[in-house]
Amino acid sequence: xxxxxxxxxxxxxxxxxxxxxxxxxxxxxxxxxxxxxxxxxxxxxxxxxxxxxxxxxxxxxxxxxxxxxxxxxxxxxxxxxxxxxxxxxxxxxxxxxxxxxxxxxxxxxxxxxxxxxxxxxxxxxxxxxxxxxxxxxxxxxxxxxxxxxxxxxxxxxxxxxxxxxxxxxxxxxxxxxxxxxxxxxxxxxxxxxxxxxxxxxxxxxxxxxxxxxxxxxxxxxxxxxxxxxxxxxxxxxxxxxxxxxxxxxxxxxxxxxxxxxxxxxxxxxxxxxxxxxxxxxxxxxxxxxxxxxxxxxxxxxxxxxxxxxxxxxxxxxxxxxxxxxxxxxxxxxxxxxxxxxxxxxxxxxxxxxxxxxxxxxxxxxxxxxxxxxxxxxxxxxxxxxxxxxxxxxxxxxxxxxxxxxxxxxxxxxxxxxxxxxxxxxxxxxxxxxxxxxxxxxxxxxxxxxxxxxxxxxxxxxxxxxxxxxxxxxxxxxxxx
Length: 480
What we know:
Layout: H1 13-28, H2 32-40, H3 47-50, H4 53-59, H5 63-68, H6 70-88, H7 93-98, H8 101-104, H9 113-129, H10 136-150, H11 158-169, H12 174-209, H13 226-230, H14 232-241, H15 244-252, H16 260-278, H17 291-298, H18 302-320, H19 353-358, E1 369-373, H20 380-390, E2 396-398, H21 403-409, E3 415-421, H22 429-438, H23 449-455, E4 460-467, E5 472-479
Parallel strand pairs: 1-2, 1-3
Antiparallel strand pairs: 3-5, 4-5
Helix pairs in contact: 1-2, 1-20, 6-9, 6-17, 9-10, 9-11, 10-12, 11-16, 14-15, 15-17, 15-18, 16-17, 21-23, 22-23
């Protein structure tokens, strides 16, 4: 975690960190209007951003503080899996789930994946303890875990916790129904305000994609052979979520004698996987919540579970630490689109710290920072967050990511961080427009920010230049 300075997770990590910084800034400045805006109008639930607040209060609004917030979710996951493993008479359940790349890989990125795994497991543990929905407190706890999970990741836990209710509803008593209605009220209390706004803003987008399959980052529809597509999620479990040995052991856990507790866990796993399979939404993150219940089911075969632990240690040493060969394990065509959930940090060819320091000519922070980059490694979104983390009270805007703000405010910006071609003195409007097109933005539909930036060359002085790669320089300018 400490060696990777870039928020380069696959699930929009840099956007999530930026949103968390926005919400934290509104909180500490008591800006009630923006606090409500960031809480209830965002594309992702604000619970994920609030979880690391204790760490942010100590370390400030840094990426490290946000990632440390994952320890809260890890603690919830360990407690829930341990409770279910002991209740069902299994062994090694906690080790099995923690050695999945889908868990230890997501632990080091500020994304909702680990939270979805943890709060799904917590909800299932509450259901198993409810004695067929008869124990009121356990059912209330289920409702609370359901609500908290929905506030950590957008809808994910619903696809695994709702199917888990089906075996219990078949023979539920009147008392059980009353308890469940009370739990539903608690879930609504925790989630209604956010999801009302979410569905008002995004229901059209969600419904339009529900039957179209998986769409990649360029907007193209991904396709796979029919038979392979139907097996995508079991194959993904073996390829990257758990690894081949541990994944096989987890799948073996689905076989065995039936009991109410086992049926609850199996309904959660099979229901969630079936949902995403039938709507043709193929992404490794969607079914990560099955890891908790699968680990518990596999723990009921202690000898086989030890084989899974050995396989998990191999996965951890290979894709986690890079000390052993292996991973990803299957042909990419079988698991496309592939997103490896555990991978080594991206090595940087340049130390960014001197450039960040050069943005200000004294110990005082810059007044307004502009950032421009067309580099895939030193992505503009990554650099924006690094400047915001270094100067928390200073506005920072990306030329490509925020052409409207750049057009309106560039004349007020006193610091400029640019990643451009080696030896180039200043970005041209043609270069900026090409970068915008590479990021799927049509300059013709945007304000003329590229021309505004190009025209300001004489107003800035270069104060530092560092080689970022064979063809790129990292350059810092300050206003004269």
